[in-house]
Each structure stands twice: as structure tokens, then as C-alpha cells.
């Protein structure tokens, strides 16, 4: 009995290794729980992984809806080589394809959701020969207004964007100021040697040469018409003699 069991396990292992009994489950990933505001669009994300190569002509994607209240499941969307939106029901003209088969994406978009859309959405993918595996489920809750967590995330996103813009502007202004400051310093360094240049026409006081003008006077004697020798006076001498003549006149006046 043990020999037969070992033989059976050996055969199964060989068949699995050869690929005859190779069965790989399709793995599907969804968001789980989602919340949407009434009247807005919501994307139901569904991605998958398959051990078999993706065949766009054979892959089949189907979405179905199970309401919160007891009732039958309703088809939401179907894809096989192309998209097939529902022709009737509550999802008519309210569903659009938003996936990429080669990118392993089977997502759809619900447009202008209503409160009747509350329930569970089931995503199922088959990629022959990989047709077995679990299905993905999304529990959607439609609300009148966004919850506090969503508002907080939105506020954080907006605040983060504004903060990033402000920081970017501060960096740009700082760079411009630094650039202008460097230009001013560069211009100042260029003007400094120019200011230090001396006027070639100006000499140092210790090396200055003082020039004096001289006056030459000719005296003519009226009695005999003879011309006496010319006398030359320098400005400095005249300045020196000036006070003495004034003193003499003062003395004569006193007499």
C-alpha cells in the first residue's frame, strides 16, 4: 500500500513538473473598502497577476454588483477583446473602462454615483489557461459629504502644494538677491582701482616748485630825459617792502 502511494505521488510530481497538471490560481488585488460622495465619479481599481502570458484575445474580465439589501447580483461590466458596458439596469451609461489588459489592470469608473450604488463590487479575471483563483471584492459606501479623513487628506494635499510653491518662490528670490549682490560686489571691485588712480597733473606738496612773477619798472627822469636803470621786483619782495612803506607814511603823519 505504501509502495502504491509513493508511486502515485511520483507520477503526480512528474506530471506537475512537465506542465500537464500545472494549475496556477489567478491573483486579484482590490482596494477593499471605498467611500464616494454622492454625484461624483469613483474609480474601482482592480489589478491581477497571472502565471500565464497575457493573451489580449482570450482574457475575460467581468464586474458584478451585489447590493446591501438582499437581492440578486447584477452585471456591471464585461470585457473580452473590447469593452461591453451594460445596456440596461441601474449602471446603464454610468460605467466606463479605465483599465489596461497588458498592464494587468482591470479597473472601471462609476460615473455620478448614487446611494443605490451602495454594495459590493466583484472583479473576476480569467486568462486561459489560468482560469482558477479568488475574486476581488470592493465594498463601496456612497455618502452625502466627504468624511473628515478625506477632507483632512485633501487639506493636507492642498496645503502641501501651496507650501511647496512658497518654498520654491523663496528659493528663486534668494538666488536672485545673491546674484545681484555678487554683481554689485564685482562692479565695486572694478571701480576701486579706478578711484585710486592719481591725476598726473597733481604732484606731491613736497615736490612742488613755486613760481614767482617779477615786475620790471623803468624810471624816466623828467629833468634831463635820461632813463634810469630798470628795477626788478619780485612779488615776494614787494610784499615784504609794502609794510615798511606804510609804516613810514604812518610816521610822517604822526610828525
Itemize the secondary structure elements and their pairings.
Layout: H1 2-18, E1 25-30, E2 33-37, E3 42-44, E4 46-49, E5 60-67, E6 74-80, E7 82-84, E8 95-97, E9 108-110, E10 119-126, E11 132-133, E12 136-143, H2 148-196, E13 214-217, E14 231-234, H3 235-254
Separate helix tally: 3
Cα separation of the termini? 174 Å
Q: Tell me the major beta sheet.
A: 6 strands, mixed
Mean pLDDT, all residues: 76
- The count of DSSP E runs of length 2 or more, i.e. the number of strands, is 14
Describe the structure.
- This protein has about 260 residues and is α+β, with helices and mostly antiparallel strands.
- About 35% of the residues lie in helices and about 25% in strands.
- The chain contains three helices and 14 strands.
- A six-stranded mixed sheet has the order 2-12-10-5-6-7, with no helix packed on it. A three-stranded mixed sheet has the order 4-1-11, with no helix packed on it.
- A hairpin with a 1-residue loop joins β6 and β7.
- Mean pLDDT is about 75; it is low at about 10-25 and about 230-255.
Brief synopsis:
34% of the residues lie in helices and 27% in strands.
What attributes characterize this protein structure?
alpha+beta, disordered C terminus, 3 helices, 3-stranded mixed sheet, 6-stranded mixed sheet, 14 strands, about 260 residues
